[in-house]
Design brief:
The protein is an alpha/beta fold. The chain has 3 domains: 2-58; 65-99 and 114-307, Endonuclease Chain A (Endonuclease, Chain A, 2-Layer Sandwich); 321-485, Endonuclease, Chain A (2-Layer Sandwich), CATH 3.30.870.10. It has helices at residues 2-29, 34-46, 48-58, 65-85, 98-111, 127-140, 157-170, 185-189, 192-199, 268-284, 321-332, 348-359, 375-382, 385-391, 424-429, 440-455, 462-466, 470-481, and strands at residues 116-124, 144-149, 174-180, 202-206, 227-230, 234-238, 257-258, 261-265, 306-313, 336-340, 363-369, 394-398, 402-403, 407-410, 414-418, 432-438, 457-459. The strands form 2 sheets. The protein has a 15-stranded mixed beta sheet with strand order 4-3-2-5-6-8-1-9-16-15-14-10-11-12-17, sandwiched between helices. The chain has a two-stranded parallel ribbon with strand order 7-13. The radius of gyration is 23 Å and the shape is globular. The N and C termini lie far apart (49 Å). The mean pLDDT is 88.
Length: 486
């Protein structure tokens, strides 16, 4: 009997080390950044069982076998649709400003379509204005309403949007609503999901969170886009979830969330529609390719319309494109670079690009919230401040709520607005969307919004920051160690 237990114990030890060795080999064979690989290896060696479970759950980008197959099979029809769209020559622009040219060329090369022109574009900086405008557009919809949001939380004006959406479905408008399972957990626990389905709305819970799927799909992969499409003509996107901030995270201690949304009319709704169609097919298996734009879709003259390129990121979409786009935009800056983000945990390449821009004379400003709803990201972001300040970057800490706007403005001409945070999760993992606008008029509008944020912020003093408590530096470095995993 003692021999049996001896053999069994040796087999267990051998299996244990074989498991560690196999996971180590798996980490090394995956093409990833050295800091990320080292972080995972250290976690696995310090806390082997916890580390292995964490890595198998969150260490690789598993879309799931079924979704991955759908993503693979949808591309032939999507590519054909994009090719047919190119025959609508009148909607595409190939004339960009010097600061925007390289970025638009990158996006066209990697996504297959150029930026589209002749769009009307309006910035909405108030949640009330955004939701009221959305309600009006829903009430006027005639054919289709399609939405995707990371968070839909009942309460306040969000309920009025829900009521108007159900009324549209009852009068015969085809309504589709896709919400992230984790972000919209309160919505799916409320009566609203059943009420909407009973009204005729197709409601889809995207990327369901379940312990049964923990090793089959990466559980922290999230549908982070915020998009509304109406009649293949009106589109919304930006940083705002479908929430009324007066009813949202009131106990978080960070104040109301401050967001920015863009409302658009024109052919950009069609290019955003193909992104929605891909998301819908990956999640449901159903194909809903949007109609191609007709000849009357450009009511705005080229001189008064905006040129917009749409960048989609996430599994199944061009890999690393949003990261490349941000790097290209930062390196294109010659005079001024302003960035706003609630979560600032950049890659080494992006951090280097920002610091280099400041060191070569660009006026660089980063606006972040002073108080963050994520303790991990809040501390990790501070680990980058010293290097940024030393390079000459101005860091503003927004004091009137949680600044949730994600925006980049380059030389007052090139704007990036959307759902992408300047952190690892947005850059490498989640389903995200960003608008790229080449227009000094829109740039001026965005600059006024950013100036308002700066007026409500406190400029971080480099000398005072260098004298912060030693324990704070230790905590910053501790969370910085986990930054490749955030």
């Amino acid at each position: 009997m003692s021999t049996f237990y001896t053999v069994l114990s040796w087999l267990l030890v051998f299996g244990y080390w074989l498991l560690i060795a196999s996971v180590t080999l798996r980490i090394l064979m995956k093409r990833r950044t050295v800091p990320s690989a080292m972080a995972w290896l250290l976690i696995i060696y310090i806390l082997p069982l916890v580390g292995i479970i964490a890595y198998l759950s969150f260490g690789e980008l598993h879309l799931g076998k079924r979704r991955a197959e759908r993503a693979r099979t949808m591309w032939p029809s999507t590519a054909k649709w994009l090719n047919d769209l190119k025959s609508c020559h009148q909607i595409f622009s190939h004339d960009n400003s010097d600061v925007a040219r390289a970025l638009f060329q990158l996006c066209e090369k990697r996504q297959g379509v150029a930026g589209v022109k002749g769009n009307q574009l309006q910035l909405l900086t108030s949640t009330d204005d955004t939701l009221q405008a959305l309600i009006r557009d829903i009430q006027l919809a005639r054919h289709h309403i399609e939405m995707v949001f990371y968070i839909w939380q009942p309460g306040g004006l969000a309920d009025e949007v829900a009521e108007s959406l159900m009324a549209a479905a009852r009068r015969g408008v085809q309504c589709r609503l896709m919400l992230d399972s984790a972000g919209s957990v309160q919505f799916f626990r409320s009566p609203w999901a059943t009420m909407m389905r009973n009204a005729g709305i197709e409601v889809v819970e995207s990327l369901k969170v379940s312990l049964l799927r923990v090793f089959l799909r990466r559980m922290d992969l999230r549908q982070h886009r915020k998009v509304v499409l109406i009649d293949n003509y009106i589109a919304y996107t930006g940083s705002m979830n479908l929430v009324d901030p007066r009813y949202f995270k009131q106990d978080a201690g960070v104040g109301q969330w401050v967001d920015l949304m863009a409302r658009m009319e024109g052919p950009v709704a069609t290019t955003m529609g193909i992104i929605y169609a891909c998301d819908w097919e990956i999640e449901t298996g159903k194909r809903i390719l949007p109609p191609s734009p007709d000849g009357n879709i450009m009511p705005f003259e080229q001189e008064s319309g905006h040129t917009i390129q749409v960048i989609a990121s996430g599994p199944g979409f061009p890999e690393d494109l949003i990261h490349q786009a941000l790097l290209t935009a930062v390196y294109a800056a010659r005079e001024q670079l302003i960035m706003t983000t609630p979560y600032f945990v950049p890659s080494d390449d992006l951090l280097h690009a920002i610091c280099t821009a400041a060191q070569r004379g660009v006026d660089v400003s980063i606006i972040v919230p002073r108080h963050n709803d994520s303790m991990l990201v809040g501390w990790a972001s501070r680990a980058f401040f010293a290097e940024l300040l030393e390079a000459g970057v101005k860091i503003y800490q927004f004091e009137e709520g949680l600044l949730h706007t994600k925006s980049v403005l380059v030389d007052g001409q090139l704007s990036l607005v959307g759902t992408v945070n300047l952190d690892m999760r947005s850059l490498w993992l989640n389903f995200e969307i960003t608008l790229v606008i080449d227009d000094d008029g829109f740039g001026g509008d965005l600059a006024r919004v950013q100036d308002d944020y700066i007026a409500r912020s406190r400029l971080l003093d480099g000398k005072r920051w260098s004298r912060r408590a030693y324990w704070q530096r230790i905590v910053e470095r501790l969370f910085y160690f986990f930054s490749p995993l955030l």
